[in-house]
Fold these 2 entries.
Entry 1:
Amino acid sequence: MKPTALLRRTSARTLITAGLVTSLALVSGCAKSEDDTGKDKSGTQRGDSGQVVASPSAGSGETCDIAAFGGERTDLKNATVGFSQSEKEANPFRIAETESIKAEADKRGVKLLTANAQSQFSKQISDVQDLIAKGADLLVVAPLNSDGWEPVLQAASAKHIPIITVDRKINATACKDYVSFIGSDFVEQGKRAADQMIEATGGKGEVAILLGTAGNNVTTERTKGFEDRIEEKAPGLKVVFKQTGEFSREKGQSVTENLIQSNPGIAGIYAENDEMGLGAVNALKGAGKKAGDIKIVTVDGTRNAVQGIVDGWISGVVESNPRFGPLAFQTLDTFTKGGKVAQDIVIQDSAYTEDNAEADLGKAY
Amino acid sequence: MTELTLGRVTADRDRLLRLLQQYGVYAGVVVLLLANTVFTPHFLSAENFRTQAVQVAPVLIVALGMALAIGSEGVDLSVGSVMALSTSLISLYLGYGPWIAALAAVIGGIVVGCANGALIAFVGVQPIVATLALMVAGRGLALVLLPQLKDVRDPGMAALGSGDVLGVPYLVLIAAALALVVAFVVRRTTFGRQLLAIGDSRPAARLAGLPVRRVLIIVYVCSGALAAIAGVLATARLTASDPTSLGTLMELSAITAVVVGGTPLSGGRVRIGGTVAGAVLIQLLTTTLIKHDLPPSWTQIAQAVVIVLAVYAARERGKR
């Protein structure tokens, strides 16, 4: 190799290395993000609003106790609880869910082991196996999938480890493979969103649905509940547009931009999560609409969406409460002491409208 | 006699395919425009064209960089992750004002481009593998820097996303300007010719004494910088930094725009006009199906059909 070529090559390499090093230094050293006013103000009220059971509580519906499940009575205080989270804590729901479990374990002085599957089901299976190997006596699992739990359930039932699943169900036998399921009724959420839409629009006109990710049970159930209730209660409302916004703000925005041009007479938009609803708000603002021109109803109950009600852009938000901590530990406590617990514990989600949005903003997650 | 006819038929078919490859994408755009004018209510409005142009702008900017990478017989899979990284960096540096934040984002894109280029030019890793590595790493880094969606309240950023000059949105002006610059670079500069020569045959270019490594690094730096600019614009439009979902599958949209636009994957040619038309075609296709409320899966199938047609035309021509 000629000296000049060598020189050029070396200098290019040095340049790249120097560039990488300086930029890494830049990233880590002098970041300065935008001031977050408003968020911290209400932050003091955080951690409020634990879940309330809707139905069926112990007594009605099928129940389970330790005699039926197998195993011995223990005291929750001396036990180790393992928590397996399904998705990265990158959205408000998952953040609030994990925080709630951790806070409740702290409050009760229970030793907690946690793992996060980062949306990979195979990782969740090995996470749970790890938790068992590390000595978890009880498990709380937020399942990524409903199916494919056999290897874990076998390992757990061999050791008589009670499992409670939260927010999603698994396809297995309650009180044999696992103890109970605690979660929201997504069909019911859709129905309550429909009620809010009927009230906001007066039950007349054309409405659009921003669907969640295709093939997701949350999407199908929230759609079914909404459409059933509209058909039953408000024949004057017509669903004329159903397109996916993939649960993201960006897709929600671009789909709504197209919607309001092709259907300028649309009366309301039902967004199956808050993020798409906020994207729709962006689109309406961009098109020069005023707050309240088109009624928006969303599901989840995040801080930003409830703020949207206060600002007048969103008509109603149906909550999907992620704070499973208190109820999950209470269920485990009752169960380990030998009491009866329900196999299906459906929680009572609250809702936000213009009447309570301002007062309850602190409860939103 | 028969042989003669056969020869003529083959020649005709060849010419047809060549026409399809060169002008098919423009014909597709025209057909979709006409069909929408007739069948879609409220399609012919300034507001609608504005919306479509704004929505296509980020994809187009990413596709420009992708066209350069593909022209050099490579590909850049990291573009979507660069967008995510760029949106994270904006959020991180917005305290210094929108310009510094945007600059930080573009520098981030350039760094990723450098890493891509270095892996490809010095280490000799295949472009698809090198940029795949950066695709995974880039998204990871973006999420480390900013673990969840964060609102952008800066008025300067909001103005960039929704403002306009004489009715033409900034996003569209920026995309158009970048397309002109890239087209000029490809056609009129030494760098452009060297890039095409390298894409045609890297060993030949090396034997001819072209600065292969330098050109390759510049190609991926350009692609990274363009993707970062697209990330800045998308962030401004959304008025939020969302590193989890921003730019997902963007690499596929960009590759589709480039290939449909008539740039062969085998390198040695770059068609910027075609790339612009390709991006517009995909946008119109998606928008047509949305406006008529057809199931979203149809969009994917329709896109697939267009890609297969484009690649078929390119392949048949390449065989000659």
Entry 2:
Amino acid sequence: MRYMMLIHHDEAALAAAPQQQLWQDYAAFNEALTKANGESGIRLEPSSKATTVRMRMDNTEVLDGPHIDAKEQLAGYFFVDAETPEDAVAWAKRCPSSRYGSIEIRPVYIPPAGGWK
Amino acid sequence: MREADEARHAAERVARDSYGRLVAYLSARTRDLAGAEDALGEAFATALRIWPIEGVPQNPDAWLLTVARRRQTDQLRRRGTQRAGEPTLMLLADETAEGGDDGDIPDRRLGLMFACAHPAIERGLRAPLILQTLLGFNAIDIAAAFLIPPATMGQRLVRAKTRLRDAGIPFAIPPRAEMAERLEAVLDAVYAIYGKGWSEWEEDGKESMAGEAIWLGQLLARLLPDAPEALGLVALMGFAEARRPARRTADGAYVPLEAQDVALWNDSLIRQANDALRQANGVGLSGRYQLEAAIQSAHVHRRLTGNDTWPAITALYAHLVRLTGSPVAQLNHAAALAHTEGAEAALAAIAPLSDDRRMQSYQPYWATLGHLHAEAGHRAEAHEALTVAMGLATDPAVRAYLQQKRRALPAD
């Protein structure tokens, strides 16, 4: 099963973390992700640089900032191919961001045979 | 108030000592685990209400069993299905045949364990099922140990129990022809419980899981005295448990086997493990657990006496590889080879594993690879492998240890 792992950061907690250790851990995590899983992850710019777009009737709203104004914001993502949900949880535990935020595990939708419904 | 405390203590004592025994007995005929647990739960609740007033009965087990059986009969009657008549009659027959409520309750736990580890039950759910039915763990604690959301674990356990009831799986010791394979599944489940108390060492509350697994292993060895593998598992867990106090420094740093202070090892556990292993060897036939226990015994002997037991360890791992074909056994065999034939020979032995997908996300594979490359003087390869091992570590103490090893690599 393919899972998308969404990294949500508490940006303040992350800024307060010991930076050198954090980035060393992240370098090791990315190396493991590439070697063991086949692809590395994507890191996003902070949520303050986000733009949110909505179409309502014929009006287009373009707003500064992220979709939801929450303490923990989407900060990056990676994919894993895991045989069991428990394996996906192990990857979430390995991600250094799990110590400063949350990792949301989302199975990738597989369209049923016969096409989209 | 004193009586209330006494009643609660008596109920708690019975819960610990006899919960599994009573669940096993109540479900043996009906195969209805959820019903047995409900009935027993109600019986415990009744006991807590009545015992403080009337005093704790002389045989609390028998008292609880009588109340639980009455509840069980009520459940069946309430359900009122056609199927209900048959188990009720069987329950009555059971009662008559075994002489009512005063005698010892027959021990049906073995049959229950074989049912929980039945091939029809998903492998990953066997250990959780044993924890719940034999030891009375709740779904929340089991979920925490197995890193599964509590609601999901609860649903899976309910589904598994329904399956046991409806699929006609006997709560019994399997026939001789199926015994070896079925026992292996039971032992694997018990070892999985032990693993929860071992690898997740840094987290609170997991050590008790290791204790429960050892207790279950000892129960199995007692109920199946002719099975060397049950004794092998008891010995294997005993050796691991004996070393627990030496696995971390006072400030939580990881200490590998070679650097452990043997004065911290638990001598009496080592003695018990060696006894269990000797007893297993006396019965015969080497299985996986007996071999792994022998390997641990050789490690312990080497560290305690200074005698070189690596040739024996290498030979035992080679045997284990032939027996199981397991890549983990292959990995350990290669690591042992480094001590008898050198790092290059070990790297050659490990090479075929680089194609094994399971090994790619297995932290000890990369840690071993890094260690062997470092020893062979391949600095760049060692650095890379140790980095991947760090990234795969879920235990912060292990990650810090690997980082320290990586830092100790000679400069280019």
